[in-house]
Amino acid sequence: MEYEILGLVLGLLLWVAWAIAIERRLRRSHEDVSQLPPGPRSLPVVGNIFQLGWSPHESFAMLARKHGPIMTLQLGSMSTVVISSSEVARVMFKNHDVVLAGRKIYEAMKGDYGNEGSLITAQYGPHWRMLRRLCTSEFFLTGRLDATREVRRRCIDRMVEFVAEASASGTKAIDVGRFIFLMAFNLIGNLMFSRDLLDPKSERGEEFFYHAGKVMEFAGKPNAADFLPVLRWLDPQGIRRKTQFHVEKAFEIAGGFIKERMGDENGREGRSRDFLDVLLEYRGDGVEGPLRFSSRTINVIVFEMFTAGTDTTTSTLEWAMAELLHNPQTLQKLQAELRAAVPPNAKLEEKHMDNLPYLKAVIKETLRLHPPLPFLVPHMAMASCKILGFHIPKETQILVNVWAIGRDPKSWKEPLFFRPERFLEPEMTEVDYKGQHFEFLPFGSGRRMCPAVPLVSRVLPLALGSLLKSFDWVLGDGVRSEEMDMTERMGITLRKAVPLKAIPIPVGNKAEA
Predict the structure, then answer these.
(1) Tens digit of pLDDT for each residue in 370-394?
(2) Is 208 exposed, middle or buried (0-12, 13-18, 19+ CB in 10 A)?
(3) How far lies 92's CA from each of 109, 181, 215, in Å?
(4) pTM across the whole model
(5) Segment 279-318, tens digit of pLDDT
(6) Is 47 left (phi over 0), alpha (psi -120 to 50) or beta?
(7) 17: how many CB neighbours lie within 10 A of its CB?
(8) Residue 170, pLDDT above cutoff 70
(9) Which of 119, 123, 298, 308 has the most CB atoms lying inside 10 A of its own CB?
């Protein structure tokens, strides 16, 4: 009891001392503070933490309506600027891309491995440029993507087969997101290791899906240890401990796949060079990267490829299916387009995409309403700068609220409605998600934009179209479309709070079902 009282007293003393230090620092830097973007009044020590809410992207969007599209929040000791309009996003990415290309790394992601090998969390500089260049030239290059067209087709075909097997009775609702995850995981597995890795009965698949999901969930949760440095060693919410536990478990699974692939001597004959070959054969100059990659670095790169590639794909396609089932007329319109453009007994192919404008519009509308990362990955100012006359101090966290930008009534008519037709209007047909249309930035823009967009733009419509061409879909448990739960679950990615459960009915069997 005495130790508990002593700890409480010491904690209160530290709290008071830190509050005084913050107040003094604010007084000393009054000139700079007066030039910061406007924002809500903050409390001593905690700042605006209590205004985060359960859904920070929604809370910040509401605050932006009052304080403006570039807004300052003080989250404990973490100075944060939130950007909530296409106009300010344009200025940021066009004029200040380099200085704001740093990364704000949360406590949850500060593991024993640091940021070694991480394309997502590495600070902008020579090492990051080497990783980015390697990734884009060997993984997402147009020529390589063209060469792997059949790999994508095969992985999506297997997803359709798995769904058909799971729905053999025609009455059983399936977890739609789980089958999308299996497809995305096998696709990355083929690009990385030249082989399928999972099937619906795979225990390792279930484990990785679980652990990767937990990593994304915990890493995206507001963490007091990020906002109040004095709490870092305590990890009061256990977020860092829990995240690292799940990271290590996922590492073990990914490491097992690497060992299997490296030990498969017979499988090397007749296969093309995959990304693991690239990593193993890498020889650097020691300036913009190591001379060789360590096994730990390779593990980090592989882990990030799998988590980033599977979680965002699963989230987007599950939301697309949910919105279509929530809007039956839109679903019918899309299925009519698919079945008119592709012969009944033929598979949907990438070559058909030019004749499927509504399918591509559905993907865009899903990404507008449900961007995979509502704040992108947090940026950080590597040096002080000015945006639109406002002072942005060094090490300020920059959050681009693409969720709010995609629902801004100044940019979008009826922004809260799922209406893919908007992307077929003459002035909107050229709008894409490649980072140059600042009202629509689901994958970011500039140097730190998601490098996987060339792959994503091929996989998303092909996978969604294949599911809709092969099956008719009915909600399970007698749920009506207007009764669907469309709430969000916040993590790093924006997932459905309630996983989508639906009954797939193979086309041609509807009358029998």
Answers:
(1) 999 999 999 999 999 999 999 999 9
(2) buried
(3) 26, 34, 29
(4) 0.89
(5) 888 887 767 677 888 888 888 888 888 888 888 999 999 9
(6) left
(7) 11
(8) no
(9) 308
The residue length of the chain stands at 513
Phi/psi for 73 (5° steps) reads -130, 145
pLDDT digits (tens, 9 = 90+) for 31-74: 455 699 999 998 888 889 889 888 899 999 999 999 999 999 99
Nearest-5° Cα angle at 433, 428 to 436: 80
Ranking 10-14, 278-282, 440-444 by mean pLDDT, the lowest is 10-14
Q: What angle do CA 465, 429, 337 make, to 5 degrees?
A: 30
Tokens of 255: 């490491």
Instruction: Please report where in the chains the tokens 């593991």 appear, as a residue.
Output: 111
β-pairing, 397-400 vs 501-506, is unpaired
Q: List the structure tokens of 483.
A: 């009764």
How far apart CA 287 and CA 467 sit, in angstroms, is: 47
Q: Six-digit token pair at 100?
A: 């704001």
Sheet containing 78-83: order of strands: 70-75, 78-83, 397-400, 379-380, 102-103
Cβ contacts of 273 within 8 Å, gap of 6 or more: none
Is residue 436 classed exposed, middle or buried when 0-12, 13-18 and 19+ CB atoms within 10 A define those classes?
A: middle
Locate 212 and state its tokens.
């990767």
Contact between 106 and 223 (Cβ < 8 Å): yes
